[in-house]
Amino acid sequence: MGIELERTVDSIQVGTRHRTDLGDIDALAASIREHGLLQPITVTIDGVLVCGRRRLAAIRQLGWRTVSVWVRSGISDRLGHLLAEQDENLHRKPLTQLEAAALYRELKQLMAEDAERRQVASRFSADHQPSTDGGGNFPPPSGPVGKAREQAAAMIPGGTSYKTMEKIGHVQHVADDPDAPEALRELATTELARIEAGGPVDPAYQRIRAAAAEVEQARQAELHALAEEAVARVTGPGRGTKRKTPATETVRAPGRWPVAAFVQTWTSLAGWWTHYAPDELAAELTDDQARVFLTVVDGTVAFADRLRPLLTIDPAEVGEAGDDAAGEEPAQHGAAEEGAVPPRHLRAL
């Protein structure tokens, strides 16, 4: 994935996203002058800087004409273009949440690799010269991953925190995991589509975590039942008992999602209509966005009509709550709580 070569210093391109507070370059330059450059900077095949902005600034200050670089192959064209940008305004089309998260994961991996190589190189150095390479706005890594997450997130347009990027990455991992149950992967794929359409990340992340926990609970119950059955078989003839399906194990039709995901979805939507004005939405939503909303509402109403007769709650209570909610204006601070119906009640939409 990479090779170490000599490259002229002037040929290394530094994009806008590397221009930050570089900290004390004089001290780093003095250390490099005395001990040499212990760890090469990382560049793309085209000579675009990936990692090592402070090291590059220091050797330029020293007047070096050439420098040893680590040429990293396999970098996506999208990330290569992002790193090479010389002007923030060149990035005209905003990244979607999923595009930003994909670039974040790629950049984080590259920075973690660079940090790992610097750790190995500095292990045999008395003053651990390269360990201060983060500097300035990018603090030094404390390990192979170290501050790679913060650094990678800071270089991705949009200002999204690394925590949000990590949550999207978790949902993406579940969707791509061939060992995960099909229903869980389908749920994760649906959540990614919601995020891509502008939906909030944390509720989607929490729903996936809850669904995964339910799957793991069922798996553990199954393993426990198998263990009990094995013990019963070896304790002697006639002592075994017929294996029973664990109470926590649920059998779902293909594509069915766990109840925990349903609860999380509707809990996160409680009182949502108190925070929007219909006239504003009508003016700003695209036709496709409006169709998605109305399709979801129609499907929800149809499902509610099937579910309502099966519930033990008072239908009149649900109907009154829905009538009240339909006439509410967008809530001021604190108003949402007053008009909210307990999450276990479906609303009349």
Describe this structure in words.
With 349 residues, this protein is mainly α. It folds into 3 domains: 2-160, no CATH class; 180-266, no CATH class; 269-349, no CATH class. Helices cover 52% and strands 6% of the residues. The chain is built from 13 helices and 4 strands. It has helices spanning 25-35, 53-61, 77-84, 97-122, 148-154, 162-176, 182-196, 201-234, 259-268, 278-284, 287-307, 315-326, 335-339; strands spanning 2-8, 41-43, 49-51, 66-72. The protein has a 4-stranded mixed β-sheet, with helices on both faces. Strand 2 (41-43) and strand 3 form a beta hairpin. Helix 1 (25-35) packs across helix 2 (53-61) and helix 6 (162-176) packs across helix 8. The longest helix has 34 residues, at 201-234. The radius of gyration is 28 Å and the shape is flat. It starts with a strand and ends in a 10-residue tail after the last helix. The model is unreliable at 128-144, 247-251 and 331-349 (pLDDT under 50).
Class by alpha and beta content? mainly alpha
Integer average pLDDT: 76
* Amino-to-carboxy terminus distance: 55 Å
Largest sheet: 4 strands, mixed
Organism: Brevibacterium casei
Protein name: ParB/RepB/Spo0J family partition protein
Region (Disordered): 118-148, 320-349
InterPro entries: Chromosome_partition/occlusion, ParB/Sulfiredoxin_sf, ParB_N
Present the secondary structure layout.
Elements: E1 2-8, H1 25-35, E2 41-43, E3 49-51, H2 53-61, E4 66-72, H3 77-84, H4 97-122, H5 148-154, H6 162-176, H7 182-196, H8 201-234, H9 259-268, H10 278-284, H11 287-307, H12 315-326, H13 335-339
Parallel strand pairs: 2-4
Antiparallel strand pairs: 1-4, 2-3
GO biological process, one term: positive regulation of sporulation resulting in formation of a cellular spore
Protein name: ParB/RepB/Spo0J family partition protein
Organism: Brevibacterium casei
